[in-house]
Design goal:
Radius of gyration: 29 Å
Low-confidence stretches: none
Mean pLDDT: 86
Number of strands: 8
Number of helices: 22
Largest sheet: 5 strands, mixed
Distance between the termini: 18 Å
Shape: globular
Helix content: 55-70%
Length: about 675
């Protein structure tokens, strides 16, 4: 409904502006209606508008063709080249991008002026309504749609106020004063292990302090954390990110606009796609440089030892996330009633860190750098700090200090809010993530038959969901020792290989290589897992070998599987017939997780090559469905399709993301609708 109102309002605004310009021309220059220069000006403006549409369409087609023709190797070389340039002069790259951005905005703002000029000179000539008036209104409509497009507001979890957290704000005030920047408009805390700053406007910003991170650091480490995060404000990183995001959003427009506006949209699409491509390269190239600049402030004006301790704790937590299956207390939905998860999880982490800290410290100090990453490794950052000595120690809360009492209060508030939010659907979540997997396991364990790989997959997934990885590995071993076809065992190899690497056992590499070779669906995840393992274990030679492999595999994927991620009207599409019973099973799951929000479900086959196709599901929700419900349902559907039989390729699309394209497809293939809400 909101989008229809937006279309109507912008159409009326375009008509009003066209009529206004027409009337202004008729009123102001009526004495010149027969002048040759008026007719010449009208012809020039009209020809320019038509030429811009044609040129933009041609340039866009050539640009997209050039980008799509780049091999994976060429793309990587481009990114690496930009990354190398950013290490020496990232500021030059940023300024170059923003010059292009400003020129593009000037071009986009010129288009409505050109449209108004056409209507104005039409008015001077005092002609009746012509196609030129409609062209003027058409261009203006496309421009006004960009001015009135929906804006997403950042989601903020819970505010920390100065009155309730005076000690935390005292640390913040010291940092703000040292950096000579304005204080954040809002300070919030979410349940995550992170910290970030983001712009609320061109003048104000917000600071987010993840409560899990707050819980494990002391005041000295908090001060270094704030110095780093707020350095992104003093370095103007956050302001630039906001400016680029706002400008790109304006030029790109809304994908939900109707197809009959696509012709005028071409006027905006060429600069938008060029800028989007440039910005993605810029972010890939300069992200680590921005982090290094923020770290440099601590090296020069902060406490490098406290900051190194903080970075080590963050590295420990990343490794703990791989090992959390060792600690059954981390399962969230075992209790019959929701509990304070953050406090429980972080207490388990600190206990694990005391047990595993020496080993984790060895891992983070030998980790090899990624070719391109958003953040440098701990080793790189520690070197930049001068390899200062550091000690990793965790706070105790037996006799909390005033500052620790504030941390406990923030943690309590986050946990209570989580409990409040999750309580209405806790029984459903507990059933999905604990009771149902437990029931599957208990049913199988009564007799422990060795079933087909397809029938064993839900059992394997149930063990994985409940963090019972030792038993999952036993099943994998039984399957791999069976006489089932090797192709069907790719999932078992993937599970076993991945879990072995999580236990720092290099034997997992061979299993993941076999899984990648047997089934292309596992290729990217398998090789990425091996690369990450080689980096963490300092295995430089193996790392180079697998980096070469992943380029070849990614190229193979780009030639086939990447086309499964899109659905266009000019694709080779047909009505799909899944194996017996599978459509009904998947549809039943979609209905279960979507509930009353579900409106329609479509299923089409997209043929990509003679030997490769994908079964594409398009899900449409009722118009009044909130975004959280849609995202939650789509995530569960995606996971269900991902875990469905591994011998089939599925794709998933949301109808609302491109309704005009899907309408065109479904008009051509009316039998592809497999579900429609009766009311």
């Amino acid at each position: 409904m909101k989008n229809y109102l937006r279309l109507i309002l912008t159409a009326l605004a375009a008509l009003a502006a066209t009529v206004g310009a027409y009337g202004a021309g008729a009123f102001l220059l009526q004495a010149h209606k027969d002048s040759p220069w008026v007719q010449t000006a009208l012809i020039l403006c009209t020809v320019l508008a038509i030429l811009l549409i044609l040129a933009s369409a041609l340039l866009l087609a050539r640009f997209l063709a050039r980008v799509r023709s780049l091999s994976v190797h060429q793309t990587q070389q481009t990114v690496l080249q930009k990354h190398a340039e950013a290490q020496t002069d990232s500021e030059k790259m940023v300024k170059s991008f923003f010059r292009s951005l400003r020129l593009s905005i000037l071009y986009v703002c010129f288009l409505p002026l050109l449209a108004l000029a056409i209507a104005f000179f039409e008015g001077v000539m005092q002609k009746n309504v012509t196609l030129l008036n409609l062209l003027s209104a058409y261009i203006l409509w496309g421009f006004f749609l960009r001015l009135l497009q929906p804006r997403e507001k950042p989601t903020l979890f819970g505010d920390l106020t100065r009155a309730d957290y005076p000690h935390l704000f005292a640390v913040l005030d010291r940092v703000v004063k040292r950096l000579k920047i304005p204080a954040p408009r809002r300070v919030v805390s979410d349940p995550q292990f992170n910290a970030s700053v983001f712009a609320l406007s061109n003048r104000h910003y917000a600071l987010n302090l993840g409560v899990q991170l707050l819980y494990i650091i002391n005041e000295e480490e908090l001060e270094q954390l704030l110095l780093h995060e707020l350095a992104h404000i003093s370095n103007k990183d956050v302001l630039r990110t906001r400016a680029a995001g706002e400008a790109l959003s304006f030029i790109l427009g809304d994908n939900g606009d109707p197809s009959f506006l696509r012709i005028v949209t071409v006027l905006f699409d060429y600069p938008a796609h060029r800028l989007l491509y440039s910005y993605s390269l810029l972010e890939a190239a300069t992200s680590s440089a921005k982090e290094a600049r923020a770290d440099a402030l601590i090296r020069d004006h902060g406490d490098p030892q406290a900051y190194a301790s903080l970075l080590a704790k963050m590295g420990y937590f990343e490794l703990f996330s791989l090992e959390s299956d060792r600690y059954p207390e981390t399962l969230a939905f075992v209790p019959e009633e929701p509990r304070e998860n953050c406090r429980c999880f972080m207490d388990v982490f600190m206990r694990a860190a005391r047990e595993r800290g020496d080993f984790w410290n060895t891992v983070i100090r030998r980790e090899l750098p990624a070719l391109v990453d958003s953040h440098p490794t701990f080793h790189e950052r520690w070197n930049a700090l001068g390899n200062c000595p550091y000690t990793v120690s965790f706070p105790t809360y037996n006799s909390p200090t005033p500052y620790q009492e504030e941390v406990l209060r923030a943690l309590k508030n986050v946990d209570l809010r989580w409990i409040e939010d999750v309580t209405p659907r806790y029984a459903e979540l507990r059933r999905e993530y604990y009771l149902e997997p437990l029931s599957v396991i208990e049913g199988w364990e009564k007799e422990r038959p060795l079933l087909s790989m397809e029938d064993m997959t839900p059992i394997l997934n149930a063990y994985m969901t409940l963090n019972r990885f030792d038993e999952a590995l036993e099943i994998c071993d039984r399957l791999l020792a069976s006489d089932q076809p090797s192709m069907s065992l790719a999932y078992a190899k993937f599970i076993k290989g991945n879990e072995l690497l999580c236990r720092y056992d290099p034997a997992g590499i061979a299993y993941l290589e076999e899984a990648a070779n047997d089934n292309a669906n596992f290729t990217e995840n398998a090789i990425n897992a091996v690369i990450l393992f080689c980096r963490r274990m300092g295995m430089a030679e193996e790392l180079e070998r697998f980096r070469g492999q992943i380029l070849d595999k990614m190229q193979e994927h780009a030639n086939t599987h990447s086309h499964a991620d899109s659905l266009r009207a000019n694709d080779k599409l047909s009505v799909e017939q899944l194996p017996e019973g599978r459509t009904e099973e998947i549809l039943a799951f979609i209905q279960e997780v979507s509930g009353e929000a579900l409106s329609e479900v479509y299923l089409v086959r997209k043929t990509i090559t003679e030997s490769f196709f994908t079964s594409a599901f398009v899900i449409r929700f009722r118009d009044n469905t909130d975004a959280d419900t849609v995202n939650r349902a789509m995530d569960r559907i995606f996971q269900h399709l991902d875990k469905s039989p591994y011998d089939w390729q599925y794709s998933l699309f949301l109808y609302e993301n491109d309704p005009s394209t899907y309408k065109t497809i479904f008009r051509r293939l009316p039998k592809c609708r497999i579900y429609a809400r009766e009311d």
